[in-house]
Design goal:
The complex is a heterodimer of chains A (473) and B (546). Chain A contains 18 helices and ten strands. By secondary structure, chain A is an alpha+beta fold. In chain A, the strands form two sheets. A five-stranded antiparallel β-sheet of chain A has the order 3-2-1-4-5. Chain A has a five-stranded antiparallel β-sheet with strand order 9-8-7-6-10, with helices on one face. Chain B is mainly alpha-helical. Helix content of chain B is 64%, strand content 5%. The N and C termini of chain B lie far apart (107 Å). The chains are: A alpha+beta (473), B mainly alpha (546).
Chain lengths: 473, 546
């Protein structure tokens, strides 16, 4: 098993290298002749990575929307290769090129033939046709035309923007918490910018569901950072549902992003302990709200913004009935933002598998558990509003419809009375076969007035490794 | 070139010139609004001027959009601003934070423009370290100002997911689902009217000040910690929160913090850390650094919470005296100075020598206020310190010192004040006389009678003489009455007018002392040819008979 995993990792890396080197040689050929030393050197680097793969089977490199797939597996898009990936995606699109098939072991001449063909086709009026003509005499290389993109460009761009917002938020949060951990002063400029962007996207109906859908992305390794961003997105969406002003939403989002900042002081051996935490570990763990508040005030001084952050960092594990932790000596009422963040925090934590709690609970079951705590640990009124926001079947729920189609809850219907009729992303047809994803609205009715589709059953998406974010990526 | 094309070019040239003019207007307004406070005419005119320029433009166009490059602003692809140097470069100011286009719409009002220019004038390093131009524009949410931002600023990360649902997994999920029994959603939620009211109230509360909560949090954290270094970190933040209270003129809250610390220090169960921390905080609040910060809230034109301030100052000790005196010299409002004086009166009782050092200050009003403080403290030991200040060159100081000495009421008071009756400033002499009058002592009476009896007294102006007589009338003793009747009856051939003034003053004083033995003399004087003597005698008679 380990060997298979390792082999898969290796293949993944090689796939990235293939795309990357292909991008390099196409780019270099735009400046130099194919016989130029730099081009030839690059060609050999490509040959070094592609030929070992071709030795076992032919290689099909296909562009689907914004991603390359090598022999059916998506090639991971990573930061270090982003420039070259963006370039080659643009080149493929410009040429109308969808797929290159390397049928047999390649040599320098094959690749030069491909490069020449691309060079000629580039300025042509019918680039793909020209490319086909030019490749007629190049052995072992076949091409296919780019398939029409199903989604309209605007929607695709929107998705792209949202994904970028999400990943920027994770990355910025990680950087900031790392700096805070090492005691460096932190600047919230970038966090504020990303929160402003998230807020703008939440305020837009179409973007909101995609962004909230992104919160179903649970990263086990970078749990803290993903969790912080997820809580922030959920809190802003929740705040929006409650009718908070744009400015308040941004304040809430920022506070949510840093609600767990106190964890930077918890020793890694406790934070990453794979087994259950001991009483002593828990004692330490329970100090993070206090540490969070003190850390924020120490690093940012006392001002309106830092006070909001400190209060929510301190209170997010205090329950509605003031049980929880830290134990208080003074009587106080919980901040409104803290109560919002506490719900978003618990919801995201329970739907995630964490280091010390490997079991993620399905979203609809989490709501059930939260309802049990309503009025005791959770503000009952806020919980009702949260459920209205996230839906009785929350975003990310895996459901079977009465049509026997399998789907993921994609977006909640705005009408509070229809919270059990969300929009569903269909992922399998009635025979269980994976389908091209389409979104259906469960409020849609037949001519006789009956609903076209109704949720019949829910399943645990974690059990099957199915999550909504995967379909959004 | 066709004539239509020519017209188009002319029109473009005109628009570009107007756009250029607007940019220059923005720069000019930015400069003037930074230099002058909001109520200054230069500031007001600058704001009105740029608004007018935009209005003129919007008479013809619906909006104006500037493309932003690193060093230039472009309008319709024509450069309307360029600066190669990055310092004070408007284009770069937008560009560096990712703004690539900025547009102003018809309908923008003067307030929006002013707020926009205020944002341009912010010193980001000191006033908004966690913001940039984009976050501030976003926060302000301008109605008629739009901007396009290149989000590359945020980085170019891509999110990936490790998990990929395989066809088999989906199929397996489908199979399992088919086997499951249908179920219904268990949770149905509906928000009631009272829920909505509750939420609205809670949202309202969210915008209330947060400092009180922060103080509670800091103390909770302090109570819980057993680590000395961590406790000190918290104490540092508590000190900073006191600073914040001062900055916000919330002295009641500052006093609340100090009271909490004091209770903590007095609580045996809190251990040594409480006492140590209180000491640290007290060192801080008695420091020059903190006391200097009081000037801003104390000079604030809005009403200061006097009770809160005095409660806060109640935590200061004699170490703060010299700093408070220094503060007196910095304060610009009388209201602020009075508050500090009140505090000095309290603290000065612990160390009058420290207070008296303020008498050496180079500023007359500081010396005057310090003299006042010493007078209020009324410690006899301070008389000797005050007397030296009687020779101060400023008459306002001398007056205050006289009052202070008068307040102290030592056996030596009269002796010290004697010389001040001959001060070369009339107001000082009068202050001295009034102060003596206020003592109601026989020595003071004798001293004043002696002054009134001096030959040159009649040379003083009428108002001064009248005041002296008013003061002496404060005594009902026979020697006073005799002196007044004698003066009233005294006629002189030479310097008659001055003598009649004296007589008139005596008549006035007799009316005040209500000496019925003076009626006859007053009736005679009431018939005098001297108008003043006649009038004052008649008035005195009315007082006596009425």
């Amino acid at each position: 098993m380990i060997t298979t995993d390792m082999r898969e990792k290796d293949l993944e890396e090689r796939a990235k290298d293939v795309v990357n080197h292909l991008a390099i040689i196409i780019r270099t050929t735009q400046l130099h002749d194919v016989n130029n030393v730099a081009v030839v050197q690059s060609i050999h680097k490509l040959l070094d990575v592609i030929n070992p793969l071709i030795s076992s089977e032919k290689i099909t490199l296909r562009l689907i929307e914004e991603f390359f797939h090598l022999n059916g597996s998506r090639v991971r898009y990573t930061v270090e290769y982003s420039t070259n990936f963006d370039f080659i995606i643009a080149e493929f699109k410009k040429l109308g090129l969808g797929t290159i098939i390397f049928e047999d072991t390649m040599d320098e001449e094959n690749i030069k033939g491909l490069l020449n063909a691309i060079k000629v086709a580039g300025p042509s009026d019918m680039p793909f046709q020209t490319l086909c003509d030019e490749l007629v005499n190049v052995p072992h290389i076949k091409i296919e035309e780019l398939q029409e993109i199903k989604e309209d460009t605007e929607c695709s761009n929107k998705k792209k923007q949202i994904k970028r917002t999400y990943s920027s938020a994770v990355s910025i949060t990680k950087g900031l918490l790392k700096r805070a951990e090492s005691g460096e002063m932190i600047n919230l400029k970038k966090s504020k910018r990303v929160i402003a962007t998230i807020t703008d996207q939440i305020l837009e109906d179409e973007s909101r569901s995609i962004l909230v859908g992104m919160t179903t992305l649970k990263d086990y390794d970078d749990y803290t950072y993903h969790h912080s961003v997820n809580v922030s997105i959920l809190a802003i969406a929740f705040g929006h549902k409650l009718g908070l002003s744009k400015k308040n939403l941004a304040e809430l989002g920022l506070a949510a992003l840093f609600h767990d900042i106190g964890k930077i002081k918890i020793p890694l051996e406790i934070l990453n302990k794979p087994s259950a935490l001991s009483d002593i570990d828990w004692k330490t763990m329970k100090l993070h709200p206090e540490w969070g508040a003190v850390t924020v005030l120490k690093l940012k001084g006392i001002n309106e913004s830092s006070m909001n952050l400190a209060i929510t960092a301190f209170e997010h594990h205090l329950n509605y009935d003031l049980s929880g932790y830290p134990k208080l000596e003074s009587r106080m009422s919980l901040d409104f933002f803290s109560r919002i963040i506490a719900i978003a925090d618990q919801y995201d934590a329970m739907t995630s598998s964490r280091v010390y709690s490997r079991t993620a609970i399905p979203p609809d079951k989490v709501l059930g558990l939260l309802v049990e705590q309503s009025g005791k640990r959770i503000d009952p009124c806020l919980l009702k509003a949260f459920i209205q926001m996230i839906g009785v079947y929350p975003i990310g729920c895996l459901v079977m419809l009465d049509t026997e189609e399998l789907g993921l809850v994609f977006d909640n219907n705005r009408d509070p009375g229809s919270s059990d009729r969300p929009n569903i992303l269909i992922i399998a047809d009635s025979s269980g076969m994976k389908t091209d994803t389409t979104v259906v609205d469960l409020l849609e009715k037949n001519d006789d007035g009956s609903y076209k589709r109704t949720i019949q059953k829910t399943l645990d998406p974690n059990e099957y490794n199915i999550n909504l974010a995967e379909y959004l990526l | 070139m066709q004539s239509g094309e020519l017209c188009l070019n002319e029109s473009l040239e005109k628009d570009v010139a107007s756009a250029k003019d607007i940019v220059e207007g923005i720069l000019k307004a930015k400069k003037l609004m930074r230099m002058y406070p909001a109520n200054n005419p230069m500031h007001i005119n600058a704001s009105a001027g740029i608004f007018e320029k935009f209005n003129d433009f919007f008479n013809v166009h619906r909006d104006i959009a500037f493309k932003v490059t690193m060093n230039s602003l472009l309008y319709k692809d024509q450069q309307v601003y360029h600066k190669s140097d990055k310092d004070d470069n408007l284009a770069f100011f937008f560009f560096k934070d990712g703004i690539r286009e900025i547009s102003f719409m018809n309908g923008i009002d003067q307030q929006e423009l002013e707020e926009f220019i205020n944002i341009l004038n912010i010193d980001f390093e000191t006033d908004a370290p966690d913001d940039d131009i984009v976050t501030l524009l976003w926060d302000r949410d301008f109605k008629n100002l739009k901007y396009f931002v290149d989000q590359d600023f945020l980085g170019n990360w891509e999110v990936t997911s490790d998990s990929q649902s395989s066809d088999e997994k989906v199929l397996s999920a489908h199979k399992d689902a088919l086997k499951k029994k249908p179920e219904k959603a268990v949770i149905q939620v509906e928000l009631t009217e009272s829920d909505f009211r509750y939420l609205a109230d809670e949202m309202q509360k969210q915008n209330q000040p947060k400092l009180q909560k922060i103080i509670i949090i800091l103390f909770e954290s302090l109570y819980h910690t057993e680590e000395t270094n961590y406790a000190r970190e918290i104490i540092d933040i508590i000190i900073e929160s006191i600073d914040y209270c001062i900055q916000e003129s919330d002295f009641g809250k500052a006093s609340y913090i100090l009271n909490k610390l004091k209770s903590m220090a007095e609580d045996e169960n809190r251990g040594i850390e409480g006492k140590r921390s209180l000491q640290t905080v007290y060192d801080k609040i008695n420091s020059r650094h903190l006391i200097e910060k009081l000037s801003k809230p104390l000079d604030n034109p809005s009403d200061i919470d006097k009770e809160g301030f005095l409660a806060f100052a109640g935590h200061m000790d004699e170490r703060s005296i010299s700093s408070l005196i220094y503060l007196l010299g910095k304060l610009e409002t009388i209201k602020g100075r009075y508050l500090v004086i009140d505090v000095l009166v309290q603290l000065g009782q612990q160390d009058i020598n420290e207070v008296a050092k303020g008498l050496q200050d180079s500023s007359w009003h500081v010396v005057k206020n310090v003299a006042h403080v010493l007078g209020e403290i009324a410690d006899p030991d301070s008389i000797a310190l005050l007397v030296k200040t009687l020779s101060n060159s400023d008459h306002r100081v001398r007056k205050e010192v006289i009052i202070a000495i008068g307040n102290i009421r030592s056996s030596r008071t009269i002796r010290y004040l004697e010389s001040t009756l001959t001060d070369n400033d009339k107001s000082v002499r009068l202050t001295a006389a009034r102060t003596l009058g206020n003592t109601k002592t026989g020595d003071a009476r004798k001293l004043l009678l002696s002054e009134l009896s001096k030959k040159n007294f009649s040379e003083k102006d009428f108002s001064e003489k009248k005041e002296f007589y008013r003061i002496i009338a404060g005594w009902q003793e026979q020697d006073v009455k005799d002196f007044l009747i004698k003066t009233l009856n005294t006629k002189k051939f030479f310097k008659r007018a001055k003598n009649d003034e004296n007589r008139a003053c005596a008549a006035y004083a007799l009316g005040l002392v209500k000496d019925i033995d003076a009626i006859k003399s007053l009736e005679i004087a009431g018939k005098s040819k001297n108008r003043v003597l006649r009038e004052l005698s008649s008035a005195a008679l009315k007082q006596l008979k009425g």
